[in-house]
Every structure is written in C-alpha cells, then in structure tokens.
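Appendix C: a fully annotated inverse folding record. The material below is reproduced so that readers can follow the format used throughout the book. The structure is listed first as tokens, followed by the designed sequence.
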C-alpha cells in the first residue's frame, strides 16, 4: 500500500516539526514553503515554493505526484474560496474552510462561540470611532482592540484608553481595511491553554491543561500541567475545548487559549481568548512530555486514523522558547547545552537569528517543578548566548550516569 500523502500549507517550524512524526508513521509529507531556505524546506525534500495566496502553488501542492490524500495547514492565512474549490473538486481539506474561518476571523469566532454558549470576554465589533468610545465607556476605560484578521504573536493587538490610539486602524476601515473588534481588558490570574485532537469520525482526545507565560505578546514558557489548577477548573477548561472542537467541526489539532479569572467568591473560572486550528506553541511540550505529540496527533487526525494517547510521560514538563540569540548560529551552543544538562531536549528551527524571533525551544521533564523549570530556563539561556542563572543540580547527576553500554 502506498504511503499516505499529507500536503501542508506553510513552511515554518510547525511544518518542520511534523516531519519526524510523518517519518515515524510512514506518511509522505509535502510542504508549501516560502523559499528553499524556509524552516520546513530544510528537512522536507518534497517542498513546493510559493505563497498561501498563490492558487497555482496550492494546486501544485495538492495535485503533485503522488496526489495528496489531504490538505492541511501550519497557519490560517489561506484563502477560503480556494479551499472550497478544492473540496468541490474532490480534494479533502482538514480542517475544512467552514471550520478554519473561526481561526481566521476573530469576529466570526466571537459570534459563533457566543452562539454556542462558550464563555468569552465581553466584546463588540468596531465599525467606527463612536463604537469604540461606547465600548470604552461600558468596559471601564481600557480595552483591547484587535484586527479581526491577520494578527499573531501580539501583532494586530493594542491596549487602548482613547480612540486616537487606534486612529490609523479606524481610518483604514473607510478604505477597505481589516475589520476591528474590541474586547474587555480581562483582569486574569494567568493564561491557560488546552490542546485537543479531533478526527472526522468524531473521536476527540485532549492533553492536560497547561499554563502559558507571555513575553511581549509572545509565548515564552509553557508548564504542563498548569500548576495548582483546581481540578474542577481543569475539567471545565477541557470540556470547553472539546465543545469548541465539536461545535466548530474542527478536524486536526485545535489550540484553545484561555484566561483564568477569579470570581468574587474567590473561585476560578475560564474565558476563551483565542483559537488556532493547527499545532501550536503551547503544545510543543508534547513532543518530549506526552505519549503522543501534537504533530503526530495532527497527522493521525487529518488522515482519520485512531488518535494516540495524550497522557503525560512525567509529572512535569516545562517548555521554554528561545526568543532571539547572541549566537549567529544556535547550533554553536549545542555542546554547552549538552554539557550543562544532558536531559534537556533542544529543538532548533533553522531560522536566521533576529531579535525576539522564535528560533527554537527547550523542554525538560521531571518530578520536581522548580528543578525542571530552572533547568529549562538555564538551557534556553545558553542558546540565547547568556549565562544561565545557575548550574542545574540535575545536570551533574545526568552527566555522572551517562556512561555504559548503548
């Protein structure tokens, strides 16, 4: 039997990290990359160069030899009308256009989640400055304004107290600019996330709820499971993620980002912040910390294969992103990381170094959260070209016991 072919739109680190999972499953991966030096192009031999808006390139991705069994994505910036055309021509697309639109357009997402009864921050579309002023008055004087399409990693998001702070966005509306929405500035305790996988036949599996830490609007650290999370709140968050996956008819991996907020009585509850219908930064810990990684699960799901177990392999996993570096090439730091902590798992994305850019991540697992977090942060610091805060205690033990037969 011929290997199934999965075509992926996008050539970044998410497509790159699908490659090992595809190899293990015997899946042929074909990727649409922005250029021959793209992160995924470096590790996926079958790469098509082109943009996600290039109809010819996307068609070549799907209809190449051998033809793709399914088309999927590592980002949401794909024209929906093209996806609908491909489906009409008999090419499976997962997640389908009618689901993906909820990750592409925040107004559509908020409307649908509200209709499903999913708890969200208070929000309103912004057709003009007057609408923003009304929302500012109602929401206490400080709100979050977002572009409905195209935002990511803190881009397309501004916290404002006056309408003139987004005057450029509001002026652009009259010239056909990106629609806007406002959301209340939620006084959250912390940010959480739930990753779920769902296949066309309806099977759904969820990983443990995690805590994510943001730095300048970009995820910098993920702790799995979320420390000190009330079991009832964890169940609520997982149930909401499953509800969203089913209610939006998502196929593949879905990331549901949440705010944990305090009730007046001192209890906690969650509000849905953002969605991503693909592997996601908050799920990178699963590569080394769970029985099935989010990348393997996404491939299983879009091919409608039985889903893998999602339980954690260790009591704690901490994933730390490497955001920028003093090294010209992060691979130069690998010997130092290995000498510091032989148990740290390093994943490099093959990207050109730029300030604040996601260049890779480190995951450490273990029994003691404080130790695991310190070691992951220390390894990431070395990759950034910085001195670690202190030599992790576990590193010495790992080095001392690393000998013996292979």
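Designed amino acids, in order:
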């Amino acid at each position: 039997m011929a290997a199934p072919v999965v075509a992926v739109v996008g050539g970044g680190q998410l497509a790159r990290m699908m490659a090992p999972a595809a190899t293990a499953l015997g899946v042929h991966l074909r990727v649409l990359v922005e250029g021959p030096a793209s992160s995924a192009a470096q590790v996926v031999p079958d790469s098509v160069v082109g943009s996600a808006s290039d109809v010819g390139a996307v068609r070549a991705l799907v209809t190449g030899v051998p033809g793709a069994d399914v088309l999927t994505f590592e980002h949401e910036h794909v024209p929906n009308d093209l996806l609908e055309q491909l489906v009409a021509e008999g090419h499976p697309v997962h997640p389908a256009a009618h689901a993906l639109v909820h990750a592409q357009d925040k107004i559509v997402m908020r409307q649908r989640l509200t209709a499903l009864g999913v708890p969200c921050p208070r929000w309103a579309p912004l057709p003009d400055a007057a609408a923003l002023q009304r929302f500012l008055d109602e929401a206490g004087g400080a709100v979050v304004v977002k572009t409905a399409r195209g935002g990511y990693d803190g881009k397309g998001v501004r916290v404002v107290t006056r309408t003139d702070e987004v005057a450029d966005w509001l002026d652009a509306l009259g010239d056909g600019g990106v629609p806007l929405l406002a959301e209340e500035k939620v006084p959250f305790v912390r940010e959480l996330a739930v990753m779920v996988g769902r296949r066309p036949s309806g099977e759904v599996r969820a990983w443990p709820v995690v805590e994510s830490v943001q730095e300048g609007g970009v995820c910098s650290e993920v702790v799995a499971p979320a420390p000190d999370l009330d079991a009832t709140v964890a169940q609520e968050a997982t149930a909401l993620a499953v509800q969203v996956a089913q209610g939006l008819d998502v196929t593949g991996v879905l990331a549901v980002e949440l705010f944990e907020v305090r009730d007046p009585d001192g209890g906690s509850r969650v509000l849905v912040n953002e969605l991503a219908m693909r592997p996601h930064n908050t799920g990178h810990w699963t590569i080394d910390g769970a029985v099935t990684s989010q990348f393997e699960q996404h491939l299983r799901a879009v091919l409608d294969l039985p889903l893998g177990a999602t339980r954690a392999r260790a009591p704690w996993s901490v994933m730390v992103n490497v955001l920028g570096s003093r090294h010209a090439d992060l691979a130069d730091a690998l010997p130092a990381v290995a000498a510091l902590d032989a148990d740290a798992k390093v994943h490099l994305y093959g990207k050109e170094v730029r300030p604040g850019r996601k260049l890779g991540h480190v995951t450490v697992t273990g029994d003691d959260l404080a130790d695991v977090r310190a070691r992951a942060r220390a390894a990431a610091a070395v990759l950034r070209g910085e001195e670690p805060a202190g030599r992790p205690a576990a590193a010495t033990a790992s080095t001392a016991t690393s000998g013996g037969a292979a």
